[in-house]
Amino acid sequence: MSAKVSQEAVIGSELILLVLIPFIPDSLLMLTDSYVIRAILLILVLASASLGPFVLLMTFVVVMAVFIRRNQRKFLSVQQSNILTPTEVPYPVDELPPPVATVAFEHPPFEQPRETSWDWSPDEETGTNEFYPVGETIDQKVVLPTQAPDGNGGGVMEEINQDALF
User: Fold this and answer.
1) Where is pLDDT greater, at 99 or 18?
2) Residue 73 · residue 32 · CB < 8 Å
3) What is the 3-state secondary structure (H, E, C) of 55-114?
4) Helix axis angle, 7-20 relative to 53-80, nearest 10°?
């Protein structure tokens, strides 16, 4: 026997959870660092889609509020422990060592291009611009013998009805 969950009851319980999130202890909020808990929360958000779009939206808002509250608590704990504030300046500006002198670097000389020029026209070294055909025609195409897929008939196709093709 399965009981149908009403959308109003789920949305009401999610609103109560949303109000109670600031009172969740740090130890429970830090459990969201675990991949298992994150996977469970993701499955919970995806499963809420079967109850309707508004339930899905409210579940997403509650889960994101949990993560926002966890990050806020982490930030406050770091800020209170003075990890982010420096205690003393390691080197005052007056005590810094002088800058290192710049070393002069001399580039090697550039190679000069060759004095020759190119005109891109055929000459004795490259050949001529004349074309000599290999034979009378280079069209070597011939009609190949064919056979029907069912094995009947066959032979060389003599003529194609152009009107039947187009």
Assistant:
1) 18
2) no
3) HHHHHHHHHHHHHHHHHHHHHHHHHHCCCCCCCCCCCCHHHCCCCCCCCCCCCCCCCCCC
4) 10
- Distance CA(17)–CA(24), nearest Å, equals 10
Specify whether the CB–CB gap between 24 and 65 falls below 8 A: no
Question: What's the whole-number mean pLDDT along residues 55-72?
Answer: 94
pLDDT grade for 41, boundaries at 50, 70 and 90: very high
Locus of tokens 């004349």: 130
User: Full-prediction pTM beyond 0.90?
Assistant: no
Tokens 């509250």 sit on residue: 69
Angle (deg, nearest 10), helices 53-80 and 35-47 = 150
Sign of CA dihedral 78, 79, 80, 85: positive
Instruction: Report in angstroms the alpha-carbon separations of 57 from 7, 42, 127.
Output: 12, 13, 78
If we measure between CA atoms, which residue out of 38, 40, 44, 39 comes closest to residue 60? Answer: 44
For position 92, what pLDDT does the model report?
73
> 116 Cβ partners below 8 Å, 6+ apart?
none
Amino acid at position 14, single letter: E
Phi first, then psi: give them for residue 155, nearest 5 degrees: 100, -170
